Amino acid sequence: MKKILSIAVVVSIAIAGCVKQKDVDFSNLSIDNWQPDWALPILNSNLTLKNVVKTGTVVSENEEGLYSLHYSSDLFSAKASDYIIIPNQNYNSPAKTLTFPQSSLSFTGTVNDSFSNTFNYTDPSGAQLEHIAVKGGNINLNLTSTFGQNVTATVVFPTVLNGNSPLQISTTIVFPATTGSASVNLAGYTFDFTNGAASTNVLPYKVRFTLTGSGQPIAPSNSLAVNVTTSDVQFSFVDGFLGSYNIPIPSDTIQIGVFDNTLSANIFIRNPKIHLNFRNSFGLGVSAKFDNLFGLTNKGDRVNMALGNVSVSGAASPGQTASSVYTIDSTNSTVQNLFNPAPNLVIYDGKVMINPSGSTPVRSFVTDSSTITLTADAELPAWFKIIDFALQDTSKMLLPEDTSLLQKAEFKLLMDNAFPLYGSVQLYFADENYNFIDSLVPTTSDIVAQAPVDADGKVTGRASAVTTFTMEKAEYNAMAPRVRYAVVRARLKTSGNSTIKILSSNNLIVKLAFRFKLNVSSTDL
């Protein structure tokens, strides 16, 4: 009897906190009353839909308890400042002679003069800009003179303002040098290219200069030329016609994994939906086009989906966001195809077209914080036709090793099914590395009946089965010291071609208890 008690103690310690002895009655194993005499409970596994969906999957439940699985993914995100670039500019004025040409063999006086003109902003995108508010960048002045005198020059840009102050750049050439340069940081300045609301891409300038005689000759052909460059200009705001841009959507993969923890699945989903959410704080319209969009099942089957362009209008003003939502449901045959059978992976690529109708100049704007985002939410109701569905659960397990009185080990397996599915259940004994050592069920025939359902595929009851398995002493002794885990594996399917609903109340309970058949005599008591 001491040996029997020691066995019970070992097992009780091994399963404490997981399965309680009061949960098992080996002679009358049931769900409602599982009370043992000396039988030992070693496993209690409760499988529901939430046990087998991909970790992190959002599962919602409607009023009747029907599950829906939600998979969200960011398909595309772009910031205006990463794609709308202000190109470096190189502005050149023609060489200018004096307004009143002078000729002197030895000029020692002073002459003040000026000239005005405009530079034209150019952009390979075809942009026609009205304003740029600058948060970073530089403007550089390079002055070239053929005068034999000292030259002091200031270039004024009357429509480039920091507050009310126009941009000015000054430099000096001391003869015999012929060039001079200067640079100004543009942060805080705003460029107005409208030329008094008459045009775009026009930058007026005025050059004021003074010649100070050095005793060198002066001739009517002497001239002054201005070169202005801008570099690394970063904007906080731009408006006008911004041209058209195509931004690639790189190839990417969404892991759907409707039943990511299953071993295999061949599942058809009724009424799947895809919600595409487009948000745009650019001040111009945007469209997205998917060049490739297809699903891959866990068996490697590919299902293509054709999806037309999706669009969103531009934001009404800076700081606002325009949004649109496209819901594609089972009325779209390509969506129905994509999720029948349900894929584990959805793969896509394409492009986002900024201002897709850009052949017609339309005034618009962007800020440095303007963004475009496109996200997808796949809503998959748990309303399935399941051709093949294999799932498993793993639990820790320790079996008693003191078997000197053991004649046989008897295992009782209870399967209580509230899924509208039928199939087989197998229990594997595994070592510390999850390698299978032995299995409990000798055949793979169907031993779990389908729970009864109504005309809508909703479960109305439960189906139970209890099976007893015997293991001889030699087989048990070879296995027990190595067992650290039990793996419950169920392979389920539906009858015929009907669809079924999986609710929050649906589950598969698998319980296991065992007892020793002992060789004892009165001297052992």
Characterization of the model:
By secondary structure, the protein is mainly beta. The protein has three domains: 2-57 and 386-524; 71-81 and 244-381, Sandwich (Jelly Rolls); 85-241, Jelly Rolls, CATH 2.60.120. The chain is built from five helices and 31 strands. Strands 4, 5, 6, 7, 8, 9, 10, 11, 12, 13 and 22 form an eleven-stranded antiparallel sheet that branches. Strands 15, 24, 26, 27, 29 and 30 form a six-stranded antiparallel sheet that branches. A five-stranded antiparallel sheet has the order 2-3-23-16-20. The longest helix is centred in the first third of the chain and has 14 residues, at 2-15.
Brief summary:
7% of the residues lie in helices and 51% in strands. By secondary structure, the chain is mainly β. Strands 4, 5, 6, 7, 8, 9, 10, 11, 12, 13 and 22 form an 11-stranded antiparallel sheet that branches. Strands 15, 24, 26, 27, 29 and 30 form a 6-stranded antiparallel sheet that branches.
Q: What number of structural domains do the residues give?
A: 3
Into which percent range does the helicity of residues fall?
under 10%
In DSSP terms, counting alpha (H) and pi (I) runs of 4 or more, how many helices? 5
What is the percentage of strand-forming residues? over 45%
Shape: elongated
The counted number of beta strands is: 31
Structural class: mainly beta
Major β-sheet annotation: 11 strands, antiparallel
Overall pLDDT metric: 81
Which regions contain 5 or more consecutive residues with pLDDT less than 50?
Answer: 1-38, 520-525
